[in-house]
Amino acid sequence: MSSEPQPDSKLSPTADNNHERESLNDPISLVYDSVVDPSRWAGACARVAAYVGGIGAGYFVQNQDSARVRIPLMVGIAPPPPDALFRQIYPALEGHFLGEIEQPVATSDLMPFDQLVETEFYRAWAEPQGLVDFVSVVLDKSVFGITMFGAFRHAQDGFADDNARRRVGLIAPHLRRALRIIRTFGRKAAETATLADTLDGLSAGLCLVDAGGRIVHVNAAAQAILDAGDILRSVEGKLTARDAQADRTLREVFAAAGQGDEALGTKGIAVPLTGEEGERYVAHALPLTSGARQCAGIGLTAAAALFIRKTAPAVSARPEVIGAAFKLTPTELRVLLAIVELGSVPEVAAALGVADTTVRTHVGRLFEKTGTKRQAELVRLVAGFASPFQDE
Fold first, then answer.
1. How far apart are CA 243 and CA 231, in angstroms?
2. What pTM was computed for the model?
3. Is 100 helix (H, G, I), strand (E, B) or coil?
4. Fewest CB within 10 angstroms: 151, 299, 322, 388, which?
5. What DSSP character marks residue 125?
6. CB 165 within 8 A of CB 51
7. pLDDT one-digit tens code per residue, 87-107
8. What is the chain's Cα-based Rg?
């Protein structure tokens, strides 16, 4: 290349705001449709890449136990080299994973372009495809690792500029919400034709509500929560929270969901709910007002699906302390932390990509090594290692 690529031109201050909202609503709608129809993820990923000014994009997961990087999905460009070589020749990779949740980071922020062009990574993989920058955003950090979404910039589009970062920041909360709801599904694919049955079978509480918060449908787990009346209750057919602040937030979320996907914005990414005895729950909202979600057999009158789940106790900032205390293998420690975060054996097996019997074998060994007999005791054991100074 004879010269460095130039950043995108910024949006004109007089740009049509309605057009901007429409261009944002399209990728958001595809992202949410992909929650109920996983076959749409590739198209959604490509549309998000186009929205932020990229020619390709993908999801990247850095495993917590091995620091290995997996790429569950990539569209628009040829896949990078194997992980070991990828990490060796792309020194900026770690910087992307160290970013704050929902805060855009570009490769051009982490290393000068004249240094990038000298790497084997650039010469062997990026340059032949015309790639000059990568703008990413961390979506989640958990015991399973760090999940990141990123879009690749072509030379004709230039380095990621303020507008690209702004757009990544706008789409990030929706990508993160979709990721969290998929995890509530237990990482099981939910086909649109059978989504209602899938929702009713969830161990998490599920409430379908209209824009005014009126309850349209609840599954068995949500009904149990409402019957207890500790964190949520039904008042004259409307879903209300015991905590006044949480109740106001939920009303805002339901009203926004009724106005379309884009209107939900950052509202309700994680609405904390606290019971009278201090039990902590978290709620996530999926808008149901457009796209494939209207055809999923969950009722056209519902504006949002609210997923409610009990939160796991805080885990020590150094999980290896737990492993050393009970002489756990790395795999046993990972299963233990997954039990704390997800709960059931089938969900842990799906998350780790192993058979239920394999997880049960490890749980049996955990019982032996820790002197416990039930999974609830394992959860309490881990809670005992939580730092009193750690915020969740």
1. 7
2. 0.75
3. coil
4. 388
5. I
6. no
7. 554 667 788 988 888 999 999
8. 22
